[in-house]
Design goal:
Length: about 270
Amino acid sequence: MRLKNKIAIITGAATGLTGEIRGIGGATAWEFVREGATVYLADINDELGERTAAEIRETGGAARYVHLDVTDEVLWQKTIDSIVKAEGALDVLVNNAGTGRDYDGDYSDPDGPQNAEEALKVEFTTVEGLDRQLGVHVRGAMLGMKYAIPEMRKRGGGSIVNVSSIHGIVGVDTITSYSTAKAAMRHMSKTVAIQYASENIRVNSVHPGYTKTPAALPLFTDPELYADRTSQIPMGRYAESGEIAKSILFLASNESSYITGAELVIDGGHNAQ
Ligand code: NAI
């Protein structure tokens, strides 16, 4: 019961059904309720989010689904207000919502990218795509912290975990706007960690490597792509979402009470090379 009596919100947590590949947010929700937390699963995929929350409740866990587009400041305010009204407090925030795509996959424009590889490059990065990535990852995480921290202060502390990526630490051949947004999340975590350390509000980032989630489906269902990517990973495989969730649990719980402004890389040795 490492999160007993704790109230948590996890964004991008709709993908948590049993028997299906879980996302990092959905897997984290299960870890949290198992450890005694009351968890709010926030997402824009309402149908899936409601089903996941209902399934968690059926197993005796305390879970609710809330519709939250993390780019919407008014919705963030309302969501945090309603959680605090219902539960009396907020202790843990996990900024996990994310999107890996900033291109719709249409390669018919002769002036646009001709294939998926080209679409990653800065020459073909669109302002809209960049704004979308910065919106979900940077603006979303910023707003979450902005409205959660005053409530954590009332509790005498709290823990925030921002889900970045290995792509936020090292330059890799990936979507320009995605790695840029993930790097900004990493730095913002450290800045905010320093600002609130004296109030016992901890902020850390996690940096998963390739992880088997619904969003990353093509990266592990295509055998050629999987072989190519895993050849770059010392442990020779992708992470399971539950492996990332356990690290998030550690940072959310009091076991990490002296850890703030840190980055936890969970990548099978990828970035150690
Ligand atoms: P996932 O398959 O669980 O999908 C992400 C979730 O975020 C979806 O449920 C989606 O509806 C939600 N979402 C998207 N935009 C949103 C918005 N504006 N507001 C609220 N919710 C929104 O994805 P996965 O792979 O578990 O990703 C979770 C986080 O982990 C993301 O931030 C991703 O960038 C990060 N990550 C994933 C890696 C991977 O290989 N799967 C590796 C490193 C980081």
